[in-house]
Amino acid sequence: MYMKTSYCMTEDVIAKLQEAEEKTGRDKVDLLDRAMRMLIHEYKKLRKKCDGPVEYQKRTDEDGNPVKKHRVKMKLLKIDNLLMQDMRRFCFKSISLLIAIAVETCLDRVVEYYCAKYYDDVKDNCRTGDWSIREKWTETAACIKIWYGVPPNYMEEYFG
């Protein structure tokens, strides 16, 4: 159920992840997974119009100097990789850029969550609790609905 992949990350992103790993004692994949799930709820700010190409990380900084990036190898659950692929398609941004945005905007909240003294009382063992996919097939097409959060009519959708 795991999948090996790699993403480009700048040294700043890698340093923030390592610092978060030391503070929480959690693996960087767990931290990134939680940060990406938080980022989903800010999709209205991230969404880009469909009229252009996919947006990638900048290659140079404000002074024109190249930004150093490193390819970081990761081992993700397939369902987490699907979530990242869906975010890429929906926001029209590369996964590496979405990871950088998630680290910049959400990682502090993730660290705060894991370091909270009441963490054991609120932890979620279901890794797919934030989103779900429902597929409907016809003879000529497949319709896939993706929900972030609980669908409003989930009893009818799943059991009706």
Please give the structural blueprint.
Layout (H helix, E strand, L loop, with lengths): L1 E9 H14 L3 H13 L2 H4 L22 E9 H14 L3 H21 L3 H4 L8 E7 L4 E7 L5 H6 L1
Antiparallel strand pairs: 1-2, 3-4
Helix pairs in contact: 1-5, 2-5
Description:
This protein is an alpha+beta fold and 160 residues long. It has two domains: 2-126, no CATH class; 130-160, no CATH class. It has helices spanning 11-24, 28-40, 43-46, 78-91, 95-115, 119-122, 154-159; strands at 2-10, 69-77, 131-137, 142-148. Helix 1 (11-24) runs parallel beside helix 5 (95-115) and helix 2 packs across helix 5 (95-115). It is globular.
Compose a concise summary of this entry.
Helices cover 48% and strands 20% of the residues. By secondary structure, the chain is of the alpha+beta class.
